[in-house]
Structures are given as C-alpha cells and as structure tokens.
Amino acid sequence: MTLEKVSIREMQRAGKQELPVEENYEFEDLPTKGPVYTVALVELDSTGLTVSGRFHATVEEPCDRCYEPYEREIRESFEEDFVFNHYIEADRPGEVELNEEDFYEVIDPEGELDLKDLIRQLIVMGMQQDRLCSRETCDIPA
Predict the structure, then answer these.
(1) Which is nearest to 59 in space by CA: 33, 78, 85, 34?
(2) Fewest Cβ atoms closer than 10 Å to its Cβ: which of 5, 46, 72, 116?
(3) Rounded Cα gap, residues 23 and 43, in angstroms
(4) What is the domain partition of the chain in residue ranges?
(5) Burial (0-12, 13-18, 19+ Cβ within 10 Å), 37
(6) pLDDT of 3-51, one tens digit each?
(7) SS3 93
(8) Residues near 72 by beta carbon (within 8 Å), at least 6 away in sequence
(9) 77: Cβ–Cβ under 8 A, 6 or more apart, which residues?
(10) Residue 1 has what pLDDT?
C-alpha cells in the first residue's frame, strides 16, 4: 500500500517526531513514464513540519523545435517547510518584509500532508520550459 498522505494528528499521538518515506508514486495526469521513486523524511516539531528528500522521475515531453516526443530524467532534492495555521496571524496590518527563510506553506495540525501532491508539484516545477531533444536530426521546422 502506497503512503500518499501523512496524518499529523496520528504522528503526534504516536509520539513520532520523524517519519521516513520510500515510495514509488504513479501519476496519470502527468507525462511521467513509470513510477516516480521518492525518498523523504517528514519531521514534526512544535511549529509544523519539514519534508526533505529527493525524487527521480522520467518524463516524456515534446521537443520545442521538432515537436517529437522525447524522454528525460528529473532528479531533484527538496526541502519544504509547513507551519501550523494557528501560528500565522490572519490580519496583519501594514506591510510585512519577507526574508528568504520566511517562505513556507500553512498546514492544519488536525489535517494531513499530501505527499503525493507535493511530489506532483515538484515534478511540474522541474519540467523544462525550453524543451530540446538534442537529436542530430532535430531542426527548426520551416
């Protein structure tokens, strides 16, 4: 059985501060070829979660020059921070200066973390905008 969602409440009840994850996710809505191998560590602390790890996906995309499909690999490491929603002030007056370390997602401590959806988002961000197949026969069509 594939672990797609992590229950924050269950981690807290079990007294777990860390949850290692090793999964092969399938995505029917992305141009992935085969499963996406994922290794991650979900770490729980008093203010939220940190999810770090890496994934390996093979995607099939059309070349921007010749329009022929080609495969390429995406190997990415990631670290994502999630802060419990009760630590975030909903109505902050005025402007707030953001620093590099201030980027995070908000999560409900009673809810679940959707790991599969997180990996889906990372794959989409990892897909190239300038997709070139690098075949010798690839040329700009007339």
Answers:
(1) 33
(2) 46
(3) 17
(4) 5-126
(5) middle
(6) 899 999 999 888 889 999 999 999 999 999 999 999 999 999 888 899 9
(7) coil
(8) 58, 59, 61, 128
(9) 52, 53, 54
(10) 61
